[in-house]
Amino acid sequence: MSEMKHYITMKGTNKGIVVYLDDQCSFEILLQELEDKVKTSESSGKTEITVHSQYRYLTDDQRKDIAQLIDQYSDMSIKKIDSYVLTREESYELYDNTTVKSVIKTIRSGQVHEVKGDALVIGDVNPGGTVLATGNIFVMGKLRGIAHAGFNGDESCVVAASYMHPSQIRIANKISRAPDYDVEGSPREFAYVNSETEQIELDQLQHLQKIRPNLLDVFERGL
After folding, report:
1. Region 204-211: what's the mean pLDDT?
2. Nearest to 146 by CA among 115, 178, 179
3. Its family (predicted)?
4. Which residues lie below 8 Å from residue 199, measured CB to CB, with a gap of 6+?
5. Residues 6+ apart with CB under 8 A from 21
6. Under DSSP, is residue 136 helix (H, G, I), strand (E, B) or coil?
7. For the chain, what are the domain ranges?
8. Is there a contact between 146 and 170 (Cβ–Cβ < 8 Å)?
9. Which residue from 25, 112, 137, 210 has the fewest beta carbons nearer than 10 Å?
10. How far apart are the C-alpha atoms of 192 and 149, rounded to whole Å?
11. Where is 14: in which H helix or E strand?
């Protein structure tokens, strides 16, 4: 006799209990087994769970059905409902934040060039000019103005330039300002947040892959 197939899997993780829903069976079968599971599950006090529908898209009504069932038959409460599915809006947002936006121009004093994702400036960033990006910033020219990479809070971002002589570099909430005295710039450098010192540091571009190996993904996206 073949074993009965189960469509609900409950796992304890370091983030709490995750209830995985099979994404191949009908929703009605899923609800029936979920009801049986939560009725027989033992929990002491109110327990928060994450419901993960894997590759199944759940409508608002289906989400309500799951929430009502769990609330009615158990002491559990749903912390969130997760999935691998992206809505059209989420996919557009993901694409927007993970693509390289290139421009051929000089960013002059008073100008602000702002992009979602990675910024590639083919030209100079003059003193008083600013480049803002949610991702990395690459300047194929002289960076003498302000560059703020990862301005949504991503400290893994970098600022790279053919000639590095900025008035200010920001990565997430870290700030590095130019010294009050005159210094010469340096060719082919990048700035990054050192995780040990939690400060912005400079290094030669040939060391970029070693310090930020995941930047290869950026190049494969078309930089």
Report:
1. 91
2. 178
3. Belongs to the MinC family.
4. 174, 176, 193
5. 7, 8, 30, 34, 51, 52, 53, 54, 56
6. coil
7. 8-82, 96-220
8. yes
9. 210
10. 10
11. none
Among 144, 196, 191, residue whose Cα is nearest residue 172: 191
Site of tokens 């060391």: 207
Edge-first strand order for the sheet with 112-115 is: 112-115, 130-133, 146-149, 168-171, 174-177
User: 137-141, long-range: CB within 8 Å, 24+ apart, which pairs?
Assistant: 138/223, 141/106
- pLDDT, mean of residues 163-184: 85
The gap from C-alpha 120 to its chain's centroid, in whole angstroms, comes to 19
Q: Which amino acid is at 9?
A: T
Token pair recorded at residue 141: 């020219």
- Please tell me the number of Cα atoms within 13 Å of 217 on its side-chain side: 10
Question: How far is Cα 221 from Cα 223, in angstroms, rounded to an integer?
Answer: 6
Given a cut of 80, whether residue 84 has pLDDT beyond it is: yes
